[in-house]
Design brief:
The chain is an alpha/beta fold. It has two domains: 195 residues, Spore Coat Polysaccharide Biosynthesis Protein SpsA, Chain A (Alpha-Beta Complex); 88 residues, no CATH class. 40% of the residues lie in helices and 13% in strands. The protein has a seven-stranded mixed β-sheet, with helices on both faces.
Length: 309
């Protein structure tokens, strides 16, 4: 997905109290794997959900293959065979039924405390449409894991002191009515239009208690491959939404030439937390991102949407 340069800070909305009893949540877990690969996140959601919440696994595998899971009446599985991650998220407005929708991936691990904090934020700040999930790297602690984590989450790496300037689109909470549709979106519309539109309104909120542990283990090969495919997928679909090739290339050039140095400056006081060699790996990931951007802008996303992180 495109990297965003730090820009004018989005102010957190402060609004009227919304009664907790009025808030119901649809937890949507997207995965390109079989639903039985989601056991960890499902166990957490089972303990965190209330009686008026719903939990849905949306998978690009056939849901019928998960018969042992389908016997569990507290959640359901929807299979969209062959669907990309873009298609899975595009279906969310047509699937979710409750007041708020929390979208997660099977490798975006939360805790019950995070869900409780999200409920409190929704209750305390009634006039918001989006709750940002920050990121932590508690598990994928190798050098390539850190480089890829920072490439995406550097300016939303909890704890943060100022409101984040963007929201990683794969883990967010959105007010159901803010979708403005009861049907599916176009592929890429969630990532490239809906979430950026909601973020631009300023009707957002965050808390350092609300974060995911983004569990993705990378080697040199897999780390560069996922950066390439993320960028190719995002830029290829961006062309479908009318974005100019020059703008796409400029974004990739920024990711390679400027973003690593900005990350170092932004996190100078936390750099001791990182393993050796992260900086040059950030530049390598940025270069893979630049190549992916150029490739996607001219040749389209190809199979890359299926590899999106």
């Amino acid at each position: 997905m495109p990297c965003r340069a730090p820009h004018e800070r989005v102010q957190t909305a402060v609004c009227q109290l919304e009664p907790m009893s009025a808030v119901s949540i649809s937890f949507i877990v997207t995965t390109e794997n079989a639903a039985n690969r989601c056991e960890t996140i499902l166990d957490i959601l089972k303990s965190a959900k209330t009686d008026i919440d719903e939990v849905v696994v949306v998978t690009s595998m056939s849901g019928a293959n998960d018969s042992s899971l389908l016997e569990r009446s507290w959640f359901k599985v929807i299979g969209i065979p062959g669907a990309s991650v873009f298609t899975l998220r595009a279906r969310v407005p047509a699937i979710a039924r409750n007041d708020w929708v929390v979208v997660l991936e099977e490798h975006s691990i939360v805790t019950s405390a995070t869900i409780d904090a999200a409920r409190r934020l929704i209750r305390d700040k009634g006039n918001i449409d989006l709750v940002v999930f920050l990121g932590k790297n508690l598990t994928s602690t190798g050098s390539w894991g850190w480089a890829n984590f920072l490439h995406t989450f550097a300016f939303a790496w909890a704890p943060i002191r100022l409101p984040p300037t963007f929201s990683p689109v794969t883990a967010v909470a959105v007010r159901r009515s803010a979708f403005n549709t009861d049907g599916p979106l176009r592929d890429g519309e969630w990532e490239l239009s809906l979430i950026p539109r909601l973020f631009a309104t300023g009707r957002t909120a965050y808390s350092n208690e609300i974060f995911i542990d983004h569990i993705r283990h990378f080697s040199l090969t897999s780390g560069l491959a996922i950066a390439f495919h993320n960028a190719r997928a995002g830029s290829g679909l961006s062309r479908n939404f009318g974005r100019a090739r020059r703008a796409i290339f400029d974004e990739g050039w920024y990711a390679f030439t400027q973003r690593p140095a900005q990350i170092v400056k932004h996190h100078a006081d936390r750099w001791h937390e990182l393993p050796a060699g992260v900086l040059w790996r950030l530049y390598a990931v940025g270069l893979a991102h630049l190549i992916g951007n150029a490739w996607g802008a001219f040749l389209g996303p190809g199979k890359s949407p299926h590899k999106l992180d």
